[in-house]
Design a protein that fits this description.
Elements (H helix, E strand, L loop, with lengths): L3 E2 L3 E5 L5 H8 L2 H4 L9 H14 L2 E7 L8 E12 L4 E5 L12 H15 L5 E6 L4 H9 L3 E12 L2 E11 H11 L1
């Protein structure tokens, strides 16, 4: 897996030193309403990290080059999981950005960088993701980068004491490429 870089962002594979901050995000009350997983322990976070390394998931820490004279700021993570080379598909998960950096287009930029890598380097044809229907900001982002809703799964997750629906989105390589060529 390689490092992806734009003028503003660096996406690099998650490393052990990133884990404490990523764990802190999993416990952030502003995020836990929208994250499908519950907060986890540092032990479980370490097991998650070892599992993604073993499985070959592409999980990238997102760094923002806020000031060229300073070390980039770790904002969050984004990933492609359950990569299936035979069927050329993967699952998109884990897009989190520090609250004070939201609204700057950084999440969209990180998503585009990762999707481009998935389609053009990993030869993925279809990337899917699920999201709680009330998570309007992620749905807007997903639609902006080419995802289309495929369906809704009723009471699919038990989250914060209730069963919640989830909407399934996907983007095909050809649709992503077409959308990106129109934006250039």
């Amino acid at each position: 897996m390689r490092i992806l870089e734009s003028d503003r962002l660096i996406l690099k594979p998650v490393e052990p030193e990133d884990l404490p901050y990523l764990l802190e995000q999993r416990w952030d009350s502003d995020l836990t309403d929208y994250i499908i997983h519950n907060p986890i322990s540092s032990y479980n976070q370490q097991q998650w990290y070892e599992n993604i390394c073993r499985k070959g998931d592409v999980v990238m820490s997102i760094f923002y080059k806020e000031n060229p004279d300073e070390k980039p700021v770790l904002l969050g993570a984004v990933g492609l999981y359950d990569i299936n080379q035979r069927h050329q598909r993967a699952t998109w998960k884990t897009l989190r950005i520090r609250k004070q950096y939201q609204g700057l287009g950084l999440a969209r930029e990180a998503a585009i960088m990762l999707l481009d890598y998935g389609f053009n380097t990993l030869n993925i044809n279809k990337i899917t993701g699920d999201v709680f229907p009330e998570n309007k900001s992620i749905i807007t982002l997903m639609e902006h980068v080419g995802f289309k809703m495929e369906g809704r799964l009723k009471q699919h997750y038990f989250h914060q004491g209730v069963f919640k629906d989830v909407v399934i989105y996907s983007v095909l390589r050809e649709d992503f490429r077409s959308l990106m060529s129109k934006k250039e």
